[in-house]
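Records of this kind hold a single protein each, on a pair of labelled lines. Below, a sample record shows both lines together.
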Amino acid sequence: MSAGHGGEFRTRRGPAVPWLIAMVMLPVSAAGGADRMAELQALLRNDCGACHGITLQGGLGPALTPAALAGRSEEALRVVIRDGRPGTAMPPWQGQVSAADIDALVRILLTGGGNEIPVLAGD
């Protein structure tokens, strides 16, 4: 990130505001169970969806559908979520979500759970 004209902070690809909001709003602790799965689905819909599209069909970031992720290993996906992608708007989520949460996010994405995430009234 760097300070742009007027003092706003920007990543190399755009404003850092969505990333900063995600860092502030994301729950740090993992509760587990159905409640945590609902929280992770909300994370995908709202936080990841800010760049990857609310239905994860693509936007600023690439699509996160099973078809788009075909051929990528679970470990490769874990690394991207954990460490981000330097030089892009994809932030590292390590320290914001647990390793178990990252595993769950990878499973949701690879099984099509991202496509099943409904857009809730008020979203």
In short: The chain has one domain: 2-110. DSSP finds five helices and two strands in the chain.
